[in-house]
Amino acid sequence: MDKSTSPYNPLDKVNLGRSIVRALLDQTIESLSNTSLPLGSGIYAIYYTGLFPAYEPVAARNWNGKFGQPIYVGKAISKRDKKSGITVDASKETDLKDCLRQHALSIEQANNLDLGDFYYRCLIVDDIWIPLGENMLIETFRPIWNIVIDGFGNKDPGNRRATQHRSSWDVLHPGRYFAEKLATGGITPEDLTRKLEKFFAGHPVSLVLESSDEDDD
Fold this sequence. Notes:
By secondary structure, the chain is of the alpha+beta class. It has helices at 13-25, 56-59, 79-84, 95-109, 130-141, 144-147, 168-172, 189-200; strands spanning 30-31, 42-48, 72-76, 118-124. Helix 1 (13-25) crosses helix 5 (130-141).
């Protein structure tokens, strides 16, 4: 045995994270346009299959039922867990349903996306493992709406809107109601398309890291 190789530890954090990812990938794919959304707290992956030109490298990996590359991943965790630390029954919460409904609404409001092109899979997860599962999904798949085009998970910023600029997501996909109230920055859809082209070509680009913590109130 190579002395430099550590023994396999199934309880190592990385191995635990990978096991959560594998469990998610075993779940059934559902249409995001489905009005019957799941109960529970946990993690989810959203897949794009449409023809938006800048997303073709992602969509092509999801065509013909392959669903190999999420465009966005996130976590849906009970606010009671986050605020009180008290464990609740993850299967009885509405967090996954609420998150997916919010995401579906954002896509419906965008002028250049079709909700019928989006699918998801989700996994109900015990609360302490949810952040680990989300982090491993981002590290494994590097979804573009998590690390290149930020803002998909944003909610209405309310009173901050006078000084806040539209996110990259809202620049590339105009139409979300609350974003129309926000100031326009200097970035253009063409800038973001070039950034995506560089990313897909393997060139260095400035990355963001959008965890679904952005969804929090």
